[in-house]
């Protein structure tokens, strides 16, 4: 099992340089780099060349740039800005040899018809995939399990990816988001496992479906998500991709970063190692 670390887990109590050093010491295989805050902060004191050299000289490698947010159903001006942001991310990913860029759907209080969400998402993902293909970079769509997200279940996200029909476009399966809007285990059983690029490990407190927010996440195995059900299906279908821990817990931000990264590894391995070698 290849173990990854998503920087949201130490969002408020660490930085990219520190996360890298601790994750390297703890034997993590991958890191998902936050491009909204942690990478820009790093580049204030370091160069992209510094970061590239770090990955060349150490075991840990970059898994994904996380994330291009609100990619679908945008105004023309907003979309042009999004394209410029994506092109910059491609340059970063190419330089750092990052295989995936995570893309996150629009979150809005506006009601948009599902057919319009799908049409926009398919069109944009096709265009982005075309831009990424020369770099050999893949797109990983992460549905968000909240009522205000335009793509908020596994079934909806999988349908969009299948309609795109490009092997360079797949999914992030985040266990929290899967649980949060009651995505279907049966749908997961029927899915093409090659469409799932990244697995995010996490857990949550027992709040009602539709009311959960990221801050409700807890250590993997310490909450109510049916991790056994999800991971059993993935094992049976032959999932061999990375397993990345991603938490947004405010209490964990009050801990030392090293303690969080160690505990995250321990709980993720305890929850997942019985399913993935």
Uncertain ranges: none
Largest sheet: 8 strands, parallel, barrel
Q: What is the total tally of β strands?
A: 10
Which class best fits the helix and strand makeup?
alpha/beta
Q: β content, as a range?
A: 15-25%
Widest sheet, order of strands: 1-2-3-4-5-6-7-10
Helix residue percentage: 40-55%
End-to-end Cα distance, whole Å, is 5 Å
Q: Which radius of gyration do the C-alpha atoms yield?
A: 18 Å
Q: SSE order, as H and E?
A: EHEHHEHEHEHEHHEEEHEHH
Determine the oligomeric state from the structure: single chain
Concise account of the structure shown:
With 277 residues, the chain is an alpha/beta fold. The chain is built from 11 helices and 10 strands. The longest helix has 21 residues, at 76-96.
What report would you give on this structure?
The chain has 277 residues and is α/β, with parallel strands linked by helices. It contains 11 helices and 10 strands. Strands 1-2-3-4-5-6-7-10 form an 8-stranded parallel beta barrel, surrounded by 5 helices. Strands 8-9 form a two-stranded antiparallel sheet. The radius of gyration is 18 Å and the shape is globular.
Topology:
Blueprint: E1 3-6, H1 16-25, E2 30-34, H2 38-43, H3 48-57, E3 61-69, H4 76-96, E4 100-104, H5 114-132, E5 138-142, H6 154-164, E6 169-174, H7 175-180, H8 185-190, E7 196-201, E8 203-204, E9 217-218, H9 227-237, E10 243-245, H10 250-253, H11 257-272
Parallel strand pairs: 1-2, 1-10, 2-3, 3-4, 4-5, 5-6, 6-7, 7-10
Antiparallel strand pairs: 8-9
């Amino acid at each position: 099992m290849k173990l990854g670390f998503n920087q949201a887990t130490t969002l408020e109590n660490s930085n990219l340089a520190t996360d890298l050093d601790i994750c390297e010491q703890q034997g993590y295989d991958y890191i998902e780099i936050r491009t909204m805050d942690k990478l820009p902060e790093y580049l204030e004191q370091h160069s992209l060349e510094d970061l590239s050299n770090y990955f060349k000289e150490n075991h840990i490698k970059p898994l994904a740039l996380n994330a291009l947010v609100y990619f679908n159903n945008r105004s023309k001006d907003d979309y042009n800005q999004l394209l410029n942001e994506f092109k910059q991310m491609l340059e970063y990913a190419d330089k750092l040899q990052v295989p995936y860029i995570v893309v996150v759907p629009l979150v809005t209080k506006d009601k948009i018809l599902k057919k319009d969400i799908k049409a926009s998402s398919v069109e944009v993902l096709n265009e982005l995939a075309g831009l990424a293909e020369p770099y050999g970079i893949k797109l990983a769509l992460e549905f968000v399990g909240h009522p205000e997200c335009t793509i908020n279940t596994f079934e909806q996200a999988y349908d969009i990816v299948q309609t795109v029909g490009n092997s360079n476009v797949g999914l992030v399966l985040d266990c929290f988001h899967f649980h949060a809007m009651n995505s279907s285990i049966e749908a997961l059983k029927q899915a093409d496992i090659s469409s799932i690029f990244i697995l995010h490990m996490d857990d949550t407190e027992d709040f009602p479906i539709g009311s959960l927010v990221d801050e409700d996440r807890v250590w993997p195995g310490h909450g109510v998500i049916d991790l056994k059900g999800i991971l059993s299906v993935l094992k049976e279908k032959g999932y061999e991709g990375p397993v990345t821990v991603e938490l947004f817990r405010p209490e964990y931000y009050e801990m030392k970063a090293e303690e969080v990264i160690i505990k995250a590894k321990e709980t993720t391995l305890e929850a997942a190692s019985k399913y993935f070698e």
